[in-house]
Design brief:
Helix content is 57%, strand content 10%. The chain contains 20 helices and 8 strands.
């Protein structure tokens, strides 16, 4: 193995180790968000006595729930065990993005894209949650990687020094089956995969064979992709059909739970867009990277437009500009769709944009660095003395209508020129400063995200101390105790799963009074969060404080009370 390859693999291993360290640092720090507790509770029901979840109104496809149940079977019933699938998915996402960027661009772009995703606050903070979204991103990236094999397969494997011809490799026959399968697995994870299908299909169009007269896939490609997609979707439909006799489909239940798809009022579009953009700034975390991402996208579009103009005149085409337009166009469209349609403005809905933002940051960084180094080379070597070197392959058509490959040649300067001082050129210094800016900004964002420094991902504040309340109830509550809930039902379903405590919902003060009076002979509890109500003040009910849970800053998060029914004199 050459020194260059050894260095390359060492950098990748260090990158993956650093990404793992950022994600595992606070893995057990936060209590579950309400939706995390809901999914974990469903996983426990699968392990107990309801493998098809017939007693639960499930509004999600089953794949992630069964992975969650398998993780809890292997590692025990704990928050960490529930978060292991997403931790693994988060690490796989970094590797998949590197592979995708390397296939579509080059190794340098791949390393930088993986580095930015490893440090992305969105990627770091959602990798240690039990949401469905990280695994959805994994299947999407896997599908894009299968499609990217067509891009790499159309490039020359070897260039002949005499004839200038390159040997090409035909696309793998199962590539379409692979990306169809991954698209089906994404839909088996979360319904939001429907919004990611245009990205997958867009890349399939963008990497079509050079010189193709028809941009659409052949019938064979369509049938193979549909075959791969049908395999997981058929299993999901079978699972769903087993529940139809007593439960609605998860599609119907999801529409009921979230209100279905509808247009948001036009008067709210501006505020909704600002709210989405507010979440989007945490894709990079750093204001510097956020600004560079916005300005750099404009620069990439302008560069691609200029290259297209030159291509029209010369008959050559550069497909990297087409890819840049795909990533930017899809990201903007994704934000606009979520603005116009009545989606809840939840941070996790933007997680699929984290790999795209990381890839675009890598493109901006590498393109800017390459431009500065090219200016440095021109300054140091104005006479362009040296040996020719192939730097880029483009595609065009000969006057006879046949496809041809054209290699751009860069003149490598002589050894004397390469040995000049690092500070001898302003452009070279600027290139180093450009690299350092991206590197430091991303590392600071990743370090801050590792310590829960951004308000995305799991719940970092509201439920601190809930584990203390649960421990107190497990130690002191009798088996027939009653615990009233208004905000924490899904949490109790998971955290008190193995106890015999009865959970009762209270809707209003009057309703609570009736319930307490109905079973006044039993021990009855209620937990009041500081962000809910500070006290009940219900006439006929006496509250005795039993335990107070505190946050790290010393503030009280949850108060546990015992309820007594007081009869009127």
């Amino acid at each position: 193995m050459s020194v260059a390859k050894r260095t390359h693999w060492v950098l990748l291993i260090l990158l993956l180790l650093g990404a793992f360290a950022l994600r595992v640092y606070y893995l057990a720090h936060d209590r579950f968000h309400a939706d995390e507790a809901l999914y974990a509770g469903w996983a426990l029901r699968i392990l107990d006595d309801d493998p098809l979840l017939l007693d639960e109104p499930v509004d999600k496809p089953p794949l992630y729930l069964y992975l969650l149940a398998a993780s809890m079977r292997l590692f025990g019933t704990s928050e960490v065990a529930a978060r292991w699938p997403n931790l693994v998915a988060g690490m796989v996402n970094v590797a998949l993005l590197y592979r995708l960027a390397r296939r579509l661009y080059d190794r340098r772009t791949g390393r930088w894209a993986a580095f930015f995703l490893a440090c992305s606050p969105y990627a770091v903070l959602f990798a240690r949650t039990a949401f469905t979204d990280p695994l959805l991103v994994t299947w999407t990236l896997a599908a894009l990687n299968f499609i990217a094999t067509r891009w790499q397969s159309s490039l020359p494997l070897r260039v002949s020094a005499t004839s200038g011809r390159g040997r090409t490799l035909a696309p793998p026959p199962l590539g379409e089956v692979g990306w169809g399968l991954c698209a089906g697995l994404a839909l088996a994870t979360k319904q939001q995969a429907l919004l990611l299908l245009p990205l997958i299909l867009g890349l399939a169009w963008a990497v079509r064979s050079p010189g193709a007269r028809c941009p659409w896939p052949t019938l064979r490609n369509i049938l193979l992709a549909l075959l791969g997609f049908a395999l997981p979707y058929a299993l999901v439909t079978w699972w769903d059909a087993q529940r139809w006799a007593i439960r609605p489909s998860f599609w119907q239940q999801g529409a009921q739970s979230y209100g279905g798809l509808h247009l948001a009022p036009a008067s709210e579009w501006g505020s909704r867009l600002l709210e989405w953009l507010g979440w989007a700034r945490y894709l990079s975390g750093s204001p510097v990277l956020y600004l560079l991402l916005g300005l750099g996208n404009v620069a990439l579009l302008a560069r691609g437009w200029w290259q297209e103009r030159r291509a029209t005149a010369s008959g050559l085409r550069d497909r990297s500009a087409r890819l840049d337009r795909l990533w930017i166009g899809y990201g903007v469209t994704y934000l606009l769709v979520h603005t116009i349609l009545g989606f809840s403005t939840w941070d996790r809905y933007l997680l699929p944009l984290a790999p795209l933002a990381s890839l675009l940051l890598a493109r901006i960084m590498v393109t800017g660095y390459g431009w500065l180094r090219a200016r440095d080379q021109a300054t140091r070597n104005p006479e362009h003395q040296g040996q020719p070197h192939v730097t880029h392959v483009r595609y065009g058509r000969s006057p006879f209508g046949q496809d041809r490959r054209v290699w751009d040649l860069e003149l490598v300067p002589s050894r004397a020129h390469r040995g000049q001082s690092w500070l001898g050129s302003w452009h070279r210094s600027a290139a180093a400063a450009w690299t350092l800016l991206f590197c430091v900004a991303a590392l600071l964002s990743g370090a801050r995200a590792a310590r829960n420094g951004y308000p995305v991902g799991g719940e970092h504040w509201a439920y601190q101390g809930l584990d203390e309340i649960v421990a107190y109830l497990e130690a002191h509550a009798p088996p027939d105790a009653v615990l009233y809930h208004h905000w924490l039902r899904w949490h109790y379903t998971y955290y008190l799963h193995d106890t015999g405590i009865e959970l009762r919902y209270w809707q209003s003060s009057e309703h609570l009074l009736r319930e307490v009076a109905r079973t006044s002979e039993r021990v009855q509890y209620i937990v009041l969060p500081d962000w809910g109500v500070s006290g009940l003040g219900v006439e006929g009910i006496e509250l005795t404080s039993l335990y107070e849970a505190h946050r790290e800053d010393g503030s009280i998060s949850l108060r546990l009370y015992e309820l007594y029914y007081v009869t009127s004199p």
